[in-house]
């Protein structure tokens, strides 16, 4: 049977230093040469089973301490170096394992420092939001990546681009579609006739990691068969918009004043996505249909042959001067709580609504997939909102893949309740759900869902009295 060998030089060195021994003294006790012990400590020779037993017998060392890997520390270091600020600094895991093995105290120090950095960034964000609620502008912010800049820019402004809307509506009219005509066929024919581009769907094995790919040499637009017919339509419409509405998209992009080329590239993609929705659901026709249907998303998705998510997106865009719809806003999250899409007809109402309260029905939606949940929620200042939430399924998953599922919240001021079909669900019924912007800025007492103490109040720990929350405050 082969002898099991363990390379644990840094741990042996720590044991020796902890005992205050020289290499010569430890080598003599272990009945090996000092040069051999030196090689062991430099991980150039293994610790054999015999040496492990000798260490345990002579120095009363726990064998688990020598044989165990620094997996916990290494995994935490991976989290640190996965941060966008440090991405690319370490090419692989081996160096992190070596750091965890050779300098565990320094590694733990780096981990603590990173946690403090994240906590400080979180508190700065909370402070910025608190000041914004009180009407004070602030330049406090953490390190921003291009994607952060793009998201913040789109979230803070109204989700309406007049040039794109006008051009998309005119282009759609120019297609000359009659009732019952297929928009997908019309857009494919336009791509072929005007630019020689042919659209093809490819099986998963041919394009396993991509939604779409445009081959400039063969003039073909490949779409993954993972995509639903609605998502395929949007991808085709995006390609059409980039070709036909390029000037309008560029003009709107320049008006956003992004600071880097990468941010501009991402912003152009978002504007192309916006334009695709405007093309698929032309402003005038969509607004008229939405008002007649009292903003019933399911009715509208059937009317325009699109998805629930596409209709919800489009409802946040209806802010043409003189022909505006209800000012909806939307929020999309995954079941881990990551928020990656926020938009609003007047900018996402971060200061008033927040969207980070665990009591919002967007989080409950994951327990009831594909069901529409409607609530009347009330903020601490008495402001009310009508919220409509539903789960969304991403691209088609294979047998051994997990479905990508997110939840989307569509909201508006409660004052519009009577104009929205969902308002009848909460009219004259149960009292509103008491929510807040986010736990760290919410001062509701006795909240069962509280996850963090508010930054605006000191903790009220009392040995004699315990409240409903672990984060009682004064």
TrEMBL record:
Keywords per UniProt: DNA-binding, Transcription, Transcription regulation
Annotated ranges, domain HTH cro/C1-type: 12-66
Gene Ontology MF annotations: DNA binding; DNA-binding transcription factor activity
Gene Ontology cellular component annotations, sorted alphabetically: cytosol
UniProt signal peptide: none
Gene3D superfamilies: lambda repressor-like DNA-binding domains
Record-stated family: Belongs to the short-chain fatty acyl-CoA assimilation regulator (ScfR) family.
PANTHER family listed in its UniProt record: HTH-TYPE TRANSCRIPTIONAL REGULATOR, HTH-TYPE TRANSCRIPTIONAL REGULATOR SUTR
Annotated protein name in UniProt: HTH cro/C1-type domain-containing protein
């Amino acid at each position: 049977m082969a002898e099991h060998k363990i390379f644990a030089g840094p741990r042996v060195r720590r044991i020796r230093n902890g005992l205050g021994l020289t290499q010569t003294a430890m080598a003599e006790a272990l009945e090996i040469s000092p040069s051999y012990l030196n090689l062991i400590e430099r991980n150039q020779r293994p610790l054999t089973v015999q040496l492990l037993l000798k260490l345990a017998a002579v120095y009363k060392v726990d064998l688990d301490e020598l044989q165990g890997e620094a997996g916990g520390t290494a995994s935490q270091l991976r989290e640190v170096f996965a941060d966008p600020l440090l991405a690319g600094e370490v090419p692989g895991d081996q160096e992190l394992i070596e750091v965890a093995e050779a300098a565990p105290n320094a590694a733990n120090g780096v981990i603590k420092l990173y946690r403090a950095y994240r906590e400080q960034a979180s508190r700065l964000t909370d402070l910025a939001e608190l000041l914004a609620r009180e009407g004070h502008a602030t330049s406090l912010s953490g390190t921003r990546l291009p994607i952060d800049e793009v998201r913040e820019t789109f979230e803070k402004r109204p989700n309406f681009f007049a040039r794109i809307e006008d051009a998309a509506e005119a282009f759609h009219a120019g297609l000359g579609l009659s009732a019952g005509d297929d928009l997908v066929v019309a857009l494919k024919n336009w791509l072929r006739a005007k630019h020689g581009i042919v659209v093809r769907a490819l099986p998963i094995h041919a394009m396993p990691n991509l939604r779409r790919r445009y081959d400039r040499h063969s003039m073909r637009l490949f779409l993954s068969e993972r995509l639903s017919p609605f998502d395929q339509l949007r991808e085709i419409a995006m390609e059409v918009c980039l070709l036909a509405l390029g000037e309008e998209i560029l003009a709107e992009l320049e008006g956003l004043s992004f600071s880097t080329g990468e941010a501009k590239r991402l912003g152009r993609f978002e504007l192309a996505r916006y334009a695709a929705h405007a093309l698929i659901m032309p402003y005038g026709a969509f607004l008229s249909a939405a008002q007649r249907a009292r903003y019933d998303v399911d009715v509208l998705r059937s009317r325009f042959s699109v998805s629930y998510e596409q209709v919800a997106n489009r409802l946040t865009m209806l802010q043409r001067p003189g022909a505006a719809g209800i000012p909806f806003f939307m929020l999309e999250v995954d079941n881990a709580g990551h928020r990656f899409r926020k938009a609003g007809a007047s900018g996402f109402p971060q200061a008033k609504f927040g969207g980070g309260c665990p009591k919002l029905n967007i989080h409950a939606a994951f327990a009831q997939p594909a069901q529409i949940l409607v609530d009347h929620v009330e903020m601490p200042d008495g402001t009310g909102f009508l919220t409509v939430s539903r789960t969304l399924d991403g691209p088609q998953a294979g047998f051994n893949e997990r479905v990508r599922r997110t939840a989307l919240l569509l909201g508006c001021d409660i004052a519009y309740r009577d104009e929205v079909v969902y308002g009848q669900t909460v009219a004259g019924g149960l009292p509103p759900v008491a929510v807040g912007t986010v736990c760290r800025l919410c001062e509701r007492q006795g909240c069962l869902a509280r996850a963090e103490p508010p930054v605006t109040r000191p903790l009220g720990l009392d040995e004699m009295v315990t409240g409903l929350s672990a984060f009682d405050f004064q």
